[in-house]
Each structure stands twice: as C-alpha cells, then as structure tokens.
C-alpha cells in the first residue's frame, strides 16, 4: 500500500560562510527540503511506495525539487506547478553568536488548493502524513489541508500528523498555528512532536505536564522525540521512553523526518483497524526501529544526503 505526504516542498538556501549573517554571507548551498518532502524521501529510501502532494513554481528550482524527489523514487504525480508563484525559498545562516538568521520567501507551496486536492486519487493509499509548518500560515494551503483531512477521514485512511513548529517562521501566527494544529491532533491516528512542541501545544511548562495534557486531550498514539534520549511513546493512556542507539552525530537535520518516515513505513500495509489492534510490544518494536532511522540520519550532513544511506537493513 502507498503513503501520501502533503505539505511544503521548498528550497533551503544554506549560507556556507561560517558565522556570517544573511546580509554578510556570499555563498549559499541549494538543498531541496521541507519536512513532508523529507518524510517522503525517507519512506522511499526504506523501500516504501510514496507520493508527494505539494506545489512548486514552473522555475528551475521547482524542476530541481521534482528531480530530487524522483531520484529517491518518490512519485511526483501530485506535485502541482504554479504559473504565477515562484518555488518557496528558506534562506538560513548560523551566525557567530549561535543564533540563526532566517529569511523566508514564500511562494508556490502555499498555493496548493482544495480543488487540486480533490483531484488526488487516494485509491491504494493506506496512510496520509500531514507534516508542515507552512500549511497553517495564511493562504489556500490551509483549506486544502483541512479538505484532505476530511477526505481521508471519510475514506478511513490512517492519518499521521507532525506540526513542525518553526519559531522564526511562525512567531507572528503562533496562536492561529496552535489552534489549527489541534484540529489535526484531535482527528489524527498518530502524531509526532518534539518536547518543545508538546509544551507549546498544551500551554505547559514541563514535559511531564505536556504529556499529561496530551493523554487527556487526545486519543491518538503519539510520540515525543527526545534527540539522543530516544522517543517517548504515548499509547492507551500509558507512556514509555524507548531509547535510541548510540551514534556520533554530525548533523541532526531530518532525524525527526526519518523517524516519522520509518514509523509509517512499518505501518503502511495494515488497515486502520489492524493498526488499532497492534500490541504495546508491536509499537515498541516499530518505535525502536524508527529511532534507528533517526539515529542513522544524524550521522550525515543534510537530510537528503542522509537518506541516501538509509535502507530497511537497519531494522534487522
Ligand atoms: P526535526 O528537527 O527533524 O523536527 P526532531 O527534533 O523532532 O527533529 P529529534 O529528537 O532530533 O527529532 O530526532 C528524532 C529521533 O532520532 C529521536 O527520537 C531519536 O530516536 C533519534 N535521534 C536524534 N538525535 C539522536 C542522537 N544524537 N543520537 C541517537 N539518536 C538520535
């Protein structure tokens, strides 16, 4: 069965002049990115059949994005191309003081419409993963997201969600972001958050408080990724920390996306009812395997580079 990932497909322009701000830096590395795009690439790298629903421009960067996805064997049948809007860019640099300088040039990704979503054929799709920071910023993608959620619920498709809160991107829209996230947290079957996101979404100050609030307010299976400490699994009103494996991290970018991709890859051939009847031991095995995918991703520089080294051999 297939997995469909929806959300932003963008180009990260990473400043490679050490310590420089975006104003000072001259040299930038072009990297295809966006969280749902990463998840799709990770699933494909593991050997899963996966489609990406997103929008890019008709410019060379949109073409590059499609080529990168196809190099991973991600289906780009539902990657739409906008004739008016340029492919979305995120410019990032790590400055001397350790802060990130960030500039986001939003373009085509936010223009995916509910009509385009309506055209997507969901036959053979067992899981839809909604993973996007930008989906809840103002624009047509907001309604498109909700439309696909409704379509998925009607067709009894397993729904996965990752809010991907990015402070520099969302800081002026945080209240609306949280509000829209809750619609997905309440309706999905599985979600993954970081510890910071868990506290932000539950308006709590500690991880324990956040976990308690999530257990009360949601019915989904949930995971809270904790970096090298592994992952907290919330299942049937109980929580367990599932340790990761020890690696020498080079770059943690994309570890969370590889984690989600690996978890969904292991669920893709089950129906919603079958997933709901998995035991705690089954979930421990799934999350432990997903941790291995996250850890492997930390061993390489850049998410897409790491996914080239990902395969389902790590589950053995
Ligand atoms: P993202 O920045 O992609 O949203 P995230 O913050 O959600 O990621 P992390 O906690 O960084 O995700 O990593 C996801 C998973 O990868 C962790 O739950 C863990 O299993 C594994 N992982 C991350 N960092 C390390 C590490 N340094 N050593 C071992 N495993 C790691």
* CATH C-level category: Alpha Beta
Strand content: 15-25%
Overall pLDDT, averaged? 96
Number of H- or I-type helical stretches: 12
Which ligands, by name, code or SMILES, are bound? Answer: adenosine-5'-triphosphate
The separation of the N and C termini measures 22 Å
Given as residue ranges, the uncertain stretches (5+ residues, pLDDT < 50) are none
Q: What is the topology, as strand order, of the major beta sheet?
A: 5-4-1-8-9-10-11-12-13
What is the CATH fold-level name?
UDP-N-acetylmuramoyl-L-alanine:D-glutamate ligase
- CA-based gyration radius: 18 Å
C-alpha geometry: globular
Total domain count: 1
CATH 4th-level superfamily = Ribokinase
Instruction: Please provide the ordered H/E string of secondary-structure elements.
Output: EEEHEHEEEHEHEHHEHHEEEHHHH
Strand elements, count = 13
**Class computed from helices, strands and strand pairing:** alpha/beta
Percent in helix: 25-40%
| CATH architecture level-2 label | 3-Layer(aba) Sandwich
- Main beta sheet strand tally, sense and closure: 9 strands, mixed
